[in-house]
Amino acid sequence: MKSTIILYSITCSLVAAQVAIASGDVVVLRQADMKAIAAAAKTIAGMFKEPATYSSGEFKWAADTIRDRAGSVLVDHFATETAAPSSKAKPNIVEERDRFDRLANDLKSYATALDAAAAANPSQMTESMRMKPGEPMGGGPLGTHVQSEAKLSSIPAEHAFHLMLQTCSTCHARFRME
Predict the structure, then answer these.
(1) Exposed, middle or buried, 142 (CB in 10 Å: 0-12/13-18/19+)?
(2) Which of 14, 57, 69, 91 shows its CA 20 to 30 Å from the CA of 39?
(3) What is the pTM of this model?
């Protein structure tokens, strides 16, 4: 049931995105993508909260949903028209383009790492995907990120997920109006 609701939510976001593409409304398109990212993140969070609900296919699908809307796609959504009446984006994205772009690319890297974890764990959520008690989190309010793909692939998926959520929080705190 939960998967059906999330799938419905993302499907609605995709339909809205298609309408936005047809009308050329980048604000509607990026809002639809952000809703899809949020729904996908909730799917992954639910599986970490209740590992018995883990489904490699759903986990991978959620990670891919985020990955496919991050990086250059997200950068392009904010290349023009950052400040619009229907947008909650702050105009400082233009002045801090490098920082915004780095966060968008970090988001894609973390989602890619989650995709790899799903592929490596096809039947169940393994202990190697979970953070260990007392394991340092890294990241933080300044948006610290894992510096290399090799290092990123060596951390548990749950840690990559937390870093991804910190990236979202950092970006929203810096570039989104409340």
Answers:
(1) exposed
(2) 91
(3) 0.81
